[in-house]
Amino acid sequence: MSGNKVSGQKSCHHCKSKSAATPSDTSTIHYEKFWLYRHCSSVQQRDRQAQKAGQLFSGLLAMNVVFLGCAFISSMIFNHVAITLAEVWILLSILKVLCLCWIIYYLLGTSRQPHAVLHRDSHAGPIWIRGSVLLFGCFSILLNVFQIGYSAILIQCKSGVEFVFPSIEILFIGTQAFFLWHHSKDCIQVQHNFTRCGLMLTIATNLLLWLLSVTNDTIHMEFESQLREVEQRFAGNETSSCTCPNTTICKVFQKGYILLYPFNTEYCLVCCSVLYVMWKNVGRRISHHHIPHIKPQFKLQGVVFGPLLGISTVIIGICVFMMYQIQATGSVPNRQVFVMYYSYYIVLLPLMSVGAVLGTIIHALEKRELDTLKNPTRSLDVILLMGAALGQIGMCHFSIVALVATDPRDLLNSLILSYSVLVIFQNITQNVFIIDGLHRQHFVVATEARHTGHAGQHVVASEIPGEEKTVTSSKQEHTQTSPSKEEEMEEQNRETYTQRRVSVIELGQEIRKASLSYIHSYSHLSWKRRALREISFFLVLCNIILWIMHTFGAHPVFENGLEKSFYGYSTWFAIVNFGLPLGVFYRMHSVGGLLEVYITA
C-alpha cells in the first residue's frame, strides 16, 4: 500500500525545485493551473492517506494481539485450571519468535536497502533511554538465568516449558536491546507497512510481557503474605518436596530472582516507548532546518546547592529504607517504622513541590520561545508522564477515602493521609514543570561557552603567578648545584624530594584551575539558568531515591494493613499492583525528562 514510494518522492522533489527556481515576482501566478503542481499535490495526498492506512492496520494488529494475550492472562488468573501459566508462556514464546524473525530481517534486510534510512530523528532515543534499555536488559537476562538455575535445582517438579520460556526470553531481550541501541533514531523509507506491523507486534509482545510480570508479582506477593501467616501458626512443620532446599546456590537463585524482578517490568515499558517513537517515524522526512546544529550535552556545570541537597536526601533515604526493610520484613512489622517511613516522605515531597513550582515560575519569566516543531519523542514523553502519574494519583485517592472514612485523627492515619495529598500535589507540579521545560527552545550557548573559556583561562593565569615562580625557582636551585661523588646519595634524595614537591604543586595548580574555571562558569550564568539547573538536578536525585524505595523490598501501602482492611484483600491488592508499576515507571521516566530540562536550561 505504501511500500517504496521512490518515484513519488522524486517527482515531488522535482516539483519543489521547479517552484524554487521561479522568480520572486510570481506572486500573482496561479500554481493550481499547472499540471506538475497538481501532480505533486496528489502524490503527497496519496502518501498521507497510505501512511494513515498503514498506521491504522498495524494498530489494529497490535490491538488484537494485546486483547488475545490479556484474555489468556486473565483466564489464567481467574481459572488457573483451564488456562495454565505454561499455556500463557507458550503463547508469548510464539510471539517472541515472530518478533525475533522480524528484527533479524530488519537488521539484515530492510535497513541495508538503498535509500532505506535517509533521515534520523535526533530527538529519538537519547543516551539515557538507550542506556536504560541496556541496563535493564542486562538485569532481565540475569533474572532469566537465575530462573533457569532455580528450575534446574528443582527439575523433578518442573516442566520443560519453564526452561524453554526463559531461554527464548534471553535471546529476545539481547536481540531487541541491540536493535534499539543502533536503530532507535531511524526514519525508515522502505517497506513501510511491513515495518509498522513488525514494530507494533513487538510493542504488543512487550506489553503482554509487562502484564505477565505484574500478575506474577501479584501472585508472588500474595504467596509470601500467606506464607508468613502459615509460618506464624505452624512453625516447624514439614514443607512440600518442591521447595528450595537449604543450600547456598538455591538461596542465591531465589533471592536474586526476587531482587531483579522489578527490572524486567521497567525494561518492557522502556522498550515500548522507544518502539512507539520508531513506529511514528516510519516514512517521516525531516528537513534540514529541523536538525539542531549544536547538540546540548550533559555537563555538571552551574549547580552547587542542588547536588548537595540531593545527595543529602539520597543518603537519608537509603538509611530510612534500610531500617524499614530490616524491621518491616519481620513477622510483625513495628508501627514506628511506618511512622518513620511516611515522615521522610512528608518532609521530602513539599521540598520537591516547592522546587517544581519555582521552576515553573522561572519558565514563565523567561523570554525563550516555545518549540512548536513536530516531535514524536516529546509528545510521547508528555503522554507517558501524564499516564504513569495516574497510578500513584489513583492509589492516593483510594487511600484518602479509606482514611477519612475510618479514623483520620490517629497518628499513622494522619501521616498516610498527608502523604497521599502531598503525592498528588507533587506529581501535578512536577509534570507541569517538566512539560513546560520540554516545550522550551534551547539556549544559544556557543558564544557564551567561548567567552567562558577565554575568561576562565585569563582568571586562572592571573590568579596563580606565585606558585609558578616557586616551581621554577626550585628547578633553578636544583640545576645550579653540582654534587660531589661523596654526596651522591644525599643528592638523589634531594632530587626525589624536589620531584615529589613539584608534582604536588602541579596537582594543586590543576585542582585550583578547575575550581576557578567552575566558579567562573557558575557566576557567568544568569540567575534564571542557575536556578533551573539547581532545581532540575535536585529533582533528579529525589526521583532516583524514590524510584529505589518504590522498586525494591516490601511496600508500605500494602503492609500497613489500613487500606487492606477497608477495601478487602483482593480489591486492594488489585489497586496496588496496578498503581505501583506505573508509579515506578513514572519516577524513572521523570528522571529522563528532568535531565532534558537540565541540559536545555
TL;DR of this structure?
With 601 residues, the protein is mainly α. It has two domains: 220 residues, no CATH class; 217 residues, no CATH class. It contains 18 helices and two strands.
Question: Can you tell me about this structure?
Answer:
It is a single chain. The protein has 18 helices and two strands. The chain has 601 residues and is an all-alpha fold. The protein has two domains: 59-230 and 243-290, no CATH class; 305-446 and 526-600, no CATH class. A two-stranded antiparallel sheet has the order 1-2. α3 packs antiparallel against α6 and α4 packs antiparallel against α5. The chain is globular and about 85 Å long. The protein starts with 5 loop residues before the first helix and ends with a helix.
Instruction: Identify low-pLDDT runs.
Output: 1-29, 445-482
Structural class: mainly alpha
Sheet with most strands: strand arrangement: 1-2
* Strand/helix succession: HHHEHHEHHHHHHHHHHHHH
Strand portion: under 5%
Number of helices: 18
**Helical proportion?**
over 70%
Nearest-integer average pLDDT: 76
Question: How far from one another are the termini?
Answer: 44 Å
Domain module tally: 2
- Radius of gyration from CA coordinates: 30 Å
SSE map:
Blueprint (H helix, E strand, L loop, with lengths): L5 H16 L13 H44 L6 H24 L8 E4 L6 H27 L7 H23 L2 E3 L3 H42 L14 H33 L24 H24 L6 H31 L10 H30 L5 H28 L7 H18 L1 H16 L7 H37 L2 H25 L4 H4 L2 H6 L1 H32 L1
